[in-house]
Design goal:
With about 230 residues, the chain is mostly helical. It has helices spanning about 5-35, 40-70, 75-110, 120-140, 145-175, 180-210, 225.
């Protein structure tokens, strides 16, 4: 690897880590805004999205510059391609955080209700853990840690499906709660999408480290299933 390419890669590493930290903070703040009915915190998430969007553009430009000027190969090429894809997923996670924050603002205007149509705390814990692990795997080049993220996605999907059924049943019994329930439905969907993007990031980390593309592998194709 040439000295100039190494410098470009070092810059990319720092940039993607910084973006990761901002996105993770936005997700945590959005979730706390829902739980605490905190309008100020929700608005801070919405305001921070401009910074995330700007950083996403900067990282993409850095990747394109490295590809054009240095024509990297092998692991260097995989790293830059993976960062390009992860960069996009991080920006989308930031958008999901904004969606949750917007719902938090709306919920703050409604009467407080103890009823939760799904296991919100567990779903947030699972999705947040997936995001954190995928970003840790990126920073530390840990394919095994990234693989553990992919295995957790089904649990989040299951909670999201159960939530739909619970909302339908609750609307039938308490139609006056429909506004609240629809906001919770949207929050659940956005948390589920965060888990999906965390899975995408983990898959790209595995590609970056090992060169293996696992995106369309079924569970039956996994090494664990064949043992």
């Amino acid at each position: 690897m040439g000295l100039h390419l190494q410098r470009e890669i070092d810059v990319l590493k720092k940039s993607i880590v910084t973006l990761s930290t901002l996105v993770e903070e936005s997700v945590n703040n959005a979730v706390n805004a829902v739980q605490q009915r905190d309008e100020v915190l929700a608005r801070s998430v919405i305001d921070a999205d401009r910074i995330i969007d700007s950083m996403e553009i900067d990282v993409e430009e850095e990747c394109c510059k490295a590809l054009a000027l240095h024509q990297p190969v092998a692991s260097d090429l995989r790293f830059i391609v993976a960062v390009l894809k992860i960069n996009n997923d991080l920006e989308r996670v930031g958008d999901m955080a904004v969606n949750i924050a917007e719902r938090a603002l709306m919920l703050a205007q409604l009467p407080n209700r103890d009823f939760k149509p799904f296991d919100f705390n567990r779903m947030v814990q699972l999705a947040g853990g997936m995001l954190k692990k995928s970003l840790d795997a990126l920073v530390n080049y840990e394919a095994d840690l990234a693989g553990s993220v992919c295995k957790s996605d089904d649990d989040v999907d299951e909670i999201n499906r159960a939530m739909y059924l619970a909302v339908i049943e609750r609307v039938r019994k308490n139609p006056q709660e429909i506004d609240y329930l629809l906001h919770m439905l949207s929050i659940s969907r956005n948390v589920e999408r965060i888990a999906d993007h965390a899975t995408n990031i983990a898959e790209d980390v595995i590609y970056m480290v090992s060169g293996e593309i696992i995106r369309h592998h079924s569970k039956e194709d996994s090494p664990e299933a064949k043992q």
